[in-house]
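Check my protein:
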Amino acid sequence: MDRTISILGSTGSIGRQALDVVRAQGWRVCALTAWGNIELLEEQIREFRPALAVVVKEEAAETLRIRTADTSTKILSGPAALCEAAVLPEAETALNAVVGIAGLQPTLAAIEAGKTVALANKETLVAGGELVMAKAAEKKVPILPVDSEHSAIFQCLQGQPRRSLEKILLTASGGPFFGYTKEALRRVKPADALRHPNWSMGAKITVDSATMMNKGLEVIEACHLFGVGPDDVEIVVHRESIIHSGVAFSDGAVIAQLGAPDMRLPIQYALTYPDRLPCPGKGLSLTDIGKLTFYKPDLDTFACLAACLEAARAGGLRPAAANGANEEAVALFLREKISFLQIGELVAQAAARQKAVPAACLEAVLEADRAAREFVRQAAR
């Protein structure tokens, strides 16, 4: 099997693990993009020799041009260049591992160009799911989930009649603050939130796990990917992160996907689908695990999750507002400008301010995102 891939967000956690898979399988990379880690991006350029590399800021791009002048890789900067990386003619698949709503436009560009999209960017479907899924259907482009939970659901549904699907069982690790009370959460700091018990991820996604916002975002994502409503998704807190998610059928059968907590498996499955190849990740021994536990989520304590579920039920532009508010609030929390509990409060307030009107176009989605961010900045002053 051969593959030629564009990797958007190659210096982040998902991007680095995607390159582990590429390296193990001997595939080709035609484009790499990064937010600003030009030291690591330079290493990746020298190893994988892509035709194009993109850095968001021009100043960083100019530095990278000088450092890689002895290579044939073209260096560009800016959002338009990110879209260019997603649509290179030689790329069969665009893996979108960009963090935040910045990933939405490259996804739409890749779909428009007829590329298979391996999607690790939650915000693409949370903020613009209606637009993205409609465009994917129009262009007959597959969107293959990379998140471990959505990959698990996707795998469990293979060969199953969709009309028999009763509900989706979306698992959550519970993050570092499982079992905490609101009073205990008042005292937590960024360093506490960044200590995830099972997964190694970037700062923003790790904080989203701590607030459980990530699970709310994943509910919205699942609704778009699998054509269900938010009340058809049951969140199950599963501390061991061995069952990555499952599905329940109308006859009472439950099918789940299990694996070690290693993102290389779902990344590789998205890139090889429908085939399966030996993976560089670690295998699973159930006897080594010993036991698996399950709990209901605490919606009263974790306000981000409750706010996100409310936005999911309202639909339209509310999820875009919730997502934008969360991105801004997490950034402020990481700089210790607001408290941990204020993240959920600001997300709920920003989402409630947004009218639940349809996400009719990209401009409307981006405006809802902008307004929510501005609200958070003003409220945090």
User: Anything to note?
Assistant: The two ends are 54 Å apart (CA to CA). The first strand starts at residue 4 and ends at 8.
